[in-house]
Amino acid sequence: MAATISQSEKSDSAFTIFKIFFSLGWVSFGGPAAHIGYFRSMFVEKRQWLADDNYAQIVALSQFLPGPGSSQVGFAIGYQRGGLIGGLMAFVGFTLPSVLMMLLLAVASSQLMDASYFQHAIHGLKLLAVVVVADATWGMYKNFCKQNLSVFVCITTAVALLLFPSISTQILVLLLAALLGMKWLPGKTSPSTLPMTLSVRPLLLFVALLFGLPLLASMAPVIQIFSDFYQAGSLVFGGGHVVLPLLQNIVGDQLSQDAFLTGYAAAQAVPGPMFTFATYLGYQLLPQAPIVGALVATLAVFLPGFLLLVGVLNNWRSLAQRAGVAGALNGVNASVVGLLIAALYQPVFVSAIFNAVDISLVLLGVTLMKQFKLPIVAMVIFFVGAGLFSPFLANLI
Fold it and tell me: Residue 71 burial (CB < 10 Å; 0-12/13-18/19+)?
């Protein structure tokens, strides 16, 4: 894993971590798969905060734990770089832009979502997500699929998830990949310098809140909101889209179907984690203090995933250094590439590519990113403009 840094470096890096993740939070469109691509581009390739295999291990761990997968990856990067404060800065920085925009959309209701220019701009950003995910997938494929067996594991994972998309399939293929890797993909190991201990306190807090909050929920509406959204965050595997039915059950008759779907559409339209859908719902569910409701719901839905991550991350890092585990991680890394291939098609590709103009813009975007090294902000500007202009191009063809 990443090298250990001193306490002074940790405190000095806290604002830097926040600043980097805050800038990413404004441009990370496209959902969890795209976020993984953005993180890899920033922290593996550009800043080299961690190696590609370390990054893949974090991605794999996020697939096994409930909660928002890409946000857990970001939290883990910040946690390794700057301890608990670093993890919190990464979370706040990456999530804050999305929260602010969801609050704005909650106030503006459906007016902005119905505007055609807004929909065209969002379409352009979905095309950018295709570029980012494709780049991340290809980069990780080159690193982790160098043997026939690792290529087989990668492609088998992609095929399984494309044909049978579910969280159970995802967990099953990762486990099988680990078993195959343990047997036939041995890797280099180094003596572990990390203790084999779980962080007990965050795990105990996770359990206490999971079972204790429902007992206190009737005391006040704000506690009820915290309890409901904490339960949802504790039970969701597989990312933001999976949380939809749980949140729909939580809302029930308190919110109209149109209002609920408007919020869900808004969560897909803004950058950052889709779990900030909770921001919109919390705003609507506590009309006497909507900002409080929004913040409480947001914190509650993210908290369980982060508590579990902190509880097991050090143990995961220690295991990664031990003999017999390196091969399993090689298998899992190859499987993660297959997971990204599947995600590149569904939901990224199918929600963005509709005609020859779209695929042409994606090819142009790949060229701008890889050959001309266009920075991400410039890529965002280009694709927003392309999205606004694409209807005119489509009509000319």
Answer: buried
